[in-house]
Structures are given as C-alpha cells and as structure tokens.
Amino acid sequence: MPITSELRPDGVRLVTMNAPPVNALTVQGWFDLATALDEAGRDLATKVVVLRAEGKGFNAGVDIKEMQHTTGFDALLGANRGCYAAFKAVYECAVPVVAAVNGFCVGGGVGLVGNADCIVASDDAYFGVPEVNQGALGAATHMARLVPQHMMRTLYFTARTIKAADLVQFGSVLEVVPRDRLDEAALEVAGEIAAKDGRVIRAAKAALNGIDPIDVNKSYRFEQGFTYELNLMGVSDELRDDFAGTNKGGKA
Question: Is-annotated flag, keyword Lipid metabolism (predicted)?
C-alpha cells in the first residue's frame, strides 16, 4: 500500500508514504493520503500525526508519467484535486502534524510539509519547487511558509533546491539529524505533544489556523488556475513529454 496509517499506544499516529521508486504519488495516492489524514484527525485516540516516508526521498510530487499516459485532462484534474485535498488535509488535520523529511522533498512534497505544524529533517534532506521545469505552477504558497519572500521567488523562478540545514536559520525546520535518527527525532517531538491534554491541543490547532494571515487553501487554488492555463496552451504537455523522456521518476 502506498499510504499506511498506524496508531501507536501513546497516541502518535504514523502516516507513511511508500510509493517506489521516488514517492511520486498517483492521483489515487494523493486522495488516499488525504483520507488517511482526515481519518486520523477524526479519531480521538490520535493525539498527533507523524507524516513520514520510506525509500530514498520524502516525496517527488505527482506521477508525471501517469499524467502523460492518460488522454484528455482527467489525470491533470485528478492530480490537481488530489494535491489540493492532501495539502488541505495536512493543514486542517484536527491534531498537529509533524513532518519527518528524508532526502528529496520537491513539488507536492513542499505542499505537504509547508502545511505541517512542525518539520524535522535528515541531514540529506532538501526542498524545492521545480514546477516551472514541467510547465506547471503551485506550492509557492507552501514554500513561502518555509523561506522569506525573496528567497521563495528565487527558488521558484530558478527551480533551485535548498538544504534542510539552511532552513533551520529561518525557523521552518526545527532540527536536522542523521538519517538513521530521523524517526527517533520526529517521535520525540510528537511525544512531547502527545503528552499534553488532547482537548487543549486540538483547540490550539484550530486557534492557530484561525489566526493564520494567509488562507493557504484559497492561495494554492489560485496558483492552480495558472497551471490549467498552461495546459490549455499546450506548454505543459510539451515540457512534461521532455521530462518524462529523460527522467525515470516523474515529479512535479
């Protein structure tokens, strides 16, 4: 199963992505992730979620090859709606979400962690939004929650990546640890949260979302509108075809 959910006795729920080779999720994978997070929030036994991944990287975005092998716009619409649902599910999860990021976290991966409440990363982790390379837009909303405005714009226009260690200075990544200690570090933070009164933590999550200066759901949906335009223009298909022909993973 690409998405699994496991509740520990201490109330920490592990939601894991495991979609080899690079955790580029299919349309169904994004919706399955959203469902797992929604269900976690509804389960009162869940006090905190740790969003993690198996494999060499956290998340490589959408499965571009699935999109290119589907006629019409069904895959595009499905991927956009699936990403929207998954990002929204992280943000609106009734309990805090701790992201444990290993290796690459690009495109849709940034959408997930940008909406998380706490980020712990391994020392090989890096983040990026390479959408412009594939004729798409999106996740600037979420990258802007990780880095200052001008840094976000530079990363977005150039499709450069930034190391997790560099995000510590901005306060968006809590700590960077060796790869073999990532789960331990994430569980340590999650354990601190789980030890609190769950009723208070759920109220705190709702309160913090309520005072957020940016509506991340509307902001991301606005970005997606330009992705639709680029697809109608034929630009996106051209760039995705080039990408799919030279890359085995598929990411956006």
Answer: yes
Burial class (CB in 10 A: 0-12, 13-18, 19+), 169: exposed
CATH number for the domain spanning 171: value is 3.90.226.10
Strands (DSSP E) found in the chain: 3-7, 12-17, 48-53, 97-101, 104-106, 118-122, 126-128, 161-163, 175-177
Question: Mean pLDDT in each 10-residue stretch from start to end of the chain (252 residues)?
Answer: 96 98 96 98 98 97 82 86 98 98 98 98 97 90 98 97 97 98 98 98 98 97 92 82 60 40
Give the pLDDT of residue 29: 97
- Domain of 125 in residue numbering reads as 3-180+197-246
**Does 187 reside within a domain?**
no
The two three-digit tokens of residue 125, written as one number: 């982790």
In a domain, 191, yes or no: no
- Do β-strands 161-163 and 175-177 pair in parallel, antiparallel, or remain unpaired? unpaired
Task: Give domain status of residue 189, yes or no.
Answer: no
The number of distinct structural domains making up the chain is 1
In the chain, DSSP finds a helix count (H) and a strand count (E) of: 11, 9
Angle at 53 (CA atoms; ends 148, 76), nearest 5 degrees:
70
Whether residue 102 contacts residue 57, with contact meaning beta carbons closer than 8 Å, is answered with yes
Residue 123: exposure state from Cβ atoms within 10 A (0-12, 13-18, ≥19) = middle
